[in-house]
Amino acid sequence: MRIAFDAKRAFENSTGLGNYSRMLIDQLIADFPANEYYLMAPRHTSVYRPQQSPNVHVITPSGIGRSLPSLWRSGWVKNDLKRLGIDIYHGLSHEIPVGIGRTGIRSVVTIHDLIFEYYPEQYKAADVKIYRKKFKYACEHATHIISVSNKTREDLVELYKVPASKISVCYPSVMPVYEHIVNDGEREAVREKYRLPAKYLLYVGSIVERKNLLNICKALHVLKDKVDLPLVVIGSGSGNYATQVNAFINANGMQAQVQFLERQQEANDPKFKSSEDFPAIYQSAEMLLYPSVYEGFGLPVLEALWSRIPVITSNTSCLPETGGDAAYYVDPTSVDELANAILTVSSNDILRQQMIRKGIAHAQKFAPQIAAAKVMEVYKNVYHPERWQRMAFL
C-alpha cells in the first residue's frame, strides 16, 4: 500500500500530537516495511527526523503551496496525493483534506478528544467553531475513524451521531525513549541540569482548568505539615487559570515548593523541547499527579507507568482505561481526596511497589508494536472494504 500521513504535527509539535504522530509513523515503518510511506508536511523541520529508507518520502508543497502551506494541507494536497498514487491518507490530528472523498483515495482520521465541546469556555469562541467544523467534516467524510479511547468513541457517537461501526479504538503508545531505564549517572546529570529536588512529585500538562493543577497545589497546602515533597511542573499556561494558580502559590508562600521547569532557562535546551530528558525526570519522581477532569487518553499516565513510578489520577473520563488496575483513582474535584491519596501513596512503600509492578504489566498492553499493528489492521480493512463486510457477519 501507498500510505500518506498528514505530518504537520510530526514536524512542528514537540509534544502531544507531535509525539503521537512520530511514534506511530516510526513504528509502522519499522514493522511493516513492505509499504510506501509519504509524509505530507507543510514544512520540513529539525523537530522530526524520519527513518532514512527508500520507502519513506517527505513531501512538502511546491509552487504557490509553499507560500500558502495551510491551504495546501487543507485541500491542495489532494493533487499531490493523486500524483503519487496514494491508496490511504491518514489525518493524524482530527482533519482530512476537503474533497478527498471525490478523489477515490480512502481516508482514515484519528480523533483524539472532543474537549472543546465539553469545555468551550476554555477556548476562544472562534476556535470552537473552527474545530467543530473540521472535526464534523472529518467524521462525516473519512472512510473510517480511529479514536484513541473508548471514551472518545462514546463521545463521537453521542455528540456527532457517528455510527459506532465507523469507529475503531486504537490506543496510542509512548515514544520509545520511555522504554529506556535511565542509569543513575544519567538521572543525576538531568537532576543537576534542571536543579531538581532529591525527591519530588511530578505534574505534566498544560496549565488549564480541566488539568486541575490548582487543586494539586491546594492539596499540597493541606498536607504542609504531613508531606514534605515539592512539586515539579512540566507545562505552561498564560490565561486566567494560570493566574489563579500563581496567585494561590504566592498567597500561601509556596513559591519554593512548586518548580515550573518551563520558566527556567534550561527549558530552551533541545533535549527538553524534544522530551529527550523527560524519562529521567519521570523516573526520578516519587509519583505522577494527574487529576485531570477530562482527557481523550491521558498520555502522561502511560508515560509514568512505563517510567515505573506510581500514578494518582482521576476516576473520570478515559483515565481508568489508561491507568487500568495500576493507578490510584480520586474524584478530581475533591481536594481532600487528592490530599489523602498523596499522603497514602507517599507513606506506604508496600502500596507503592504494588502500583509499580501493576503499572509495568499494564503498560505492556500499550506497547508501540501493538499500537502500530492495530492501526495497520484498520488500513488493511479500509483498503479491502470487503473485509469489513465479512467481519460484520462474524
CATH superfamily of the largest domain: Glycogen Phosphorylase B
| Structural class by helix and strand composition | alpha/beta
CATH architecture of the largest domain: 3-Layer(aba) Sandwich
The strand line-up of the biggest sheet is 3-2-1-4-5-6-7
Helix content: 40-55%
Query: What value does the Rg take, in angstroms?
Result: 22 Å
Oligomer: single chain
Question: Low-confidence parts, pLDDT < 50 over ≥5 residues?
Answer: 390-394
| Main sheet record | 7 strands, parallel
Number of H/I helices: 17
Quote the beta fraction: 5-15%
Tally of structural domains: 2
Mean pLDDT: 93
Number of strands: 13
Tell me the CATH topology of the largest domain.
Rossmann fold
General shape: globular
Q: What sequence of helices (H) and strands (E) makes up the elements?
A: EHHEEHEEHHEHEHEHEHEHHEHEHEHHHH
Short description:
The chain is an alpha/beta fold and 394 residues long. It contains 17 helices and 13 strands. It has helices at residues 8-12, 17-31, 69-83, 115-118, 125-141, 150-160, 184-194, 213-222, 240-251, 270-273, 278-283, 299-306, 319-323, 335-347, 349-363, 368-383, 386-392; strands spanning 2-6, 36-40, 56-59, 88-91, 106-111, 144-147, 167-169, 201-204, 231-234, 258-260, 287-290, 311-314, 328-330.
What would you note in describing this structure?
The chain has about 400 residues and is of the alpha/beta class. The chain has 2 domains: about 1-175 and about 370-390, Rossmann fold, CATH 3.40.50; about 175-365, Rossmann fold (3-Layer(aba) Sandwich), CATH 3.40.50. It is about 45% helix and about 15% strand. It is built from 17 helices and 13 strands. The chain has helices at about 10, 15-30, 70-85, 115-120, 125-140, 150-160, 185-195, 215-220, 240-250, 270-275, 280-285, 300-305, 320-325, 335-345, 350-365, 370-385, 385-390, and strands at about 1-5, 35-40, 55-60, 90, 105-110, 145, 165-170, 200-205, 230-235, 260, 285-290, 310-315, 330. The protein has a 7-stranded parallel β-sheet, with helices on both faces. Strands 10-9-8-11-12-13 form a 6-stranded parallel β-sheet, sandwiched between helices. Helix 8 (about 215-220) packs parallel to helix 9 (about 240-250) and helix 8 crosses helix 14 (about 335-345). The chain is globular. About 45% of the residues are buried. Mean pLDDT is about 95; it is low at about 390-394.
